[in-house]
# Entry
Amino acid sequence: MKEMKIVLVNLSSTMSSDGSRLISALLKQSGYSVTNIFLARSNPFNYENSELILLDPILEETQLVLIGVYSSYVLRAIDITKYVKKTFPEIKVVWGGPHCIAAPEMALEYADGVCFSEGDEVIIDFVDKMAGNEEYIDIPNMAFKKGDKIIVNKVLPPFKELDSLPYYDYDFKNAYLLDKHLVPLNKEIIKERFGYYPFYVPTFYFLSSRGCPNKCTYCNNARYVSMFGKNSIRFHSVDRVISELAASLEKFDFFKYIYIGDDDFFMRPLDQIEDFSKQYKEKIKIPFGVALSPNTYNSKKMRLLVEAGLRFIQMGVQTGSQRVLDDVFKRNTNTEKTFAVIRELTEFKKTDDIDLLLDFIIDNPYETREDVFLTYKSLLELPLHVIVNIFYLTFFPGTPLYDQAVKDGYTEPFGSKTSRLRFFTRQGVKVRYQKNYEMFLILFIKKFRLHCIDHQFRYRKLIPLAVFRFLGLKPLRAMASLLPESFFMFLFKKLD
# Structure
């Protein structure tokens, strides 16, 4: 065992934490002592010093703290970084993860170093040099502060040898959950904390590829495309996927579902889908879900996966407006094709009990009222059994849409006095831009759909769909446009 001790902190409210678990596995494989700390809770969001002080016995023996940061949890990263730097100023703190990929300079306001691209090829080199008191500020994929200067190093090509990586680290040794108390991790905690949406039963989250076929302006993948010069799609082999899933399920025998969280599982060629389906049915045998896009959907692939145990599908629709898809999101999808695929997918509910989850993004300042209404019309046509996920548009630092929104005054740049410490998710009043009747219609039908699902559709006839169509009539919309924004904000609060 090498002498330098490392603490790896993951801030996500879920504990799948694939990125930090992979880095932990790589470090342990190289002989380093790693302690994993999970700050995994939704409420209350902040961790008080009375909680962080519980980490002192671990930190006082530590030389390096690595923190995996999503933009949604950047406040949590700042809090624990400030605590470590104040209490143990000799400890180096390095951030990695999606927030750093999008905005490394912002992370360096707090951290000593940042990994802003894939860490697989550089983390061991960095830690080895640090442990040996060697110079490390020139390591690729990383950025550092040197006095008042920020050094952003070159980017390595996309890491391709995914099968050479160790399995994700789910070892309980030196692994803790911090939630009011510091508790050693065990199977019962994993079982409780892995009860994910939408079924809220223990669900194992797994990534079998890297990369996304899209480069949407609101997504961090656009940053990867700009760094690599292209969309880089890479896969674990089918054999590797099955072997790691089997090993994980042998350790945790309580999982009811597996969710393969690839951006688009249907990117895999047909022969790989055939091989995966055959092996999964023989060796894994529990229900699973995947994400796909309308561009990659293939009925033959779908049928193979259904026979292997596919039980839920997730797909991004985002908006009913082709103009927004083309001009704002730069998303290479077609609304007509998307809803043709949705109509086909909804049939699988009848024949194979497949649940369909569709993602929409609302409250976009670049939408017109007519764009918002097109999304409402799309929601109106969906069968009630379809699970609709509504997300409020967030401008994540480093994305093209964030840059545009800063330029247009829709959000303040990260680092300004009023935005330096802010949530990158909607807090409090969620609707900021579309304070109008069309947004009310979307939130109303969302509430109705949730009510139907919560009550097993017993009350769906209380409001016939004809009522929703009537509410969307053009004369009624025109009259509603005369009402003040304050009236709609009142309605939004009632529907929230």
